[in-house]
Amino acid sequence: MNSDTIKSNLRNYYNQEAEHRNASDKDGWKAKERKAFSDMAAQENKKHLLEIGAGSGQDSQYFMEQGFDVTAVDLSKEMVQKCKEKGINAHELDFYNLAALNQKFDCIWAMNTLLHVPKADLQDVLRNISAVLNQNGIFFMGVYGGKDSEHEWANDICDIPRFFSFYSPDKLKAVLQDVFEIISFKQYDVGRTNEFPFQAAVMRKR
Q: Which option is the CATH number for 3-205: 3.10.20.30, 3.40.640.10, 3.30.540.10, 3.40.50.150?
């Protein structure tokens, strides 16, 4: 499956999910990761933050409340609209084309979005992220993983399939280390499924 088809399916899926996602509460473990990254960025006096795959803008709104100058991007037009309703500077854009923002950032946040990138494309996407990150900038990437696989999946809520790439810890760290310096990496069970635990990486631009 080519990237255009993958992106089209994702766009259609998340357009349909916008209302539901906007009304959903934030999982506690996601909020903890978010706070830890926010605290680290604040301690380093970071100001400008980019959220990739912002969804309905809950995280971007949180970062704004913490005093960051936030820009958000998402593939879904409906999700971008939810962001704008929260007063977020949001753009309909995918992670392949971040250079179109014509801006650089001190920190970048990507929660459960880069797992939609095919393995063959991930290094290029990571380089695109690095290119819009300021010197000494920091980058959070959170994904489900645990073992190596690529597949499409459709649930009983929406029959539009989404593409997922999952990595074992060693494979993911190897890909990330080619582009970034890894500050911390952890994998843990979030109670949703033992098959795909959560992986959280905090990185710095080389």
A: 3.40.50.150
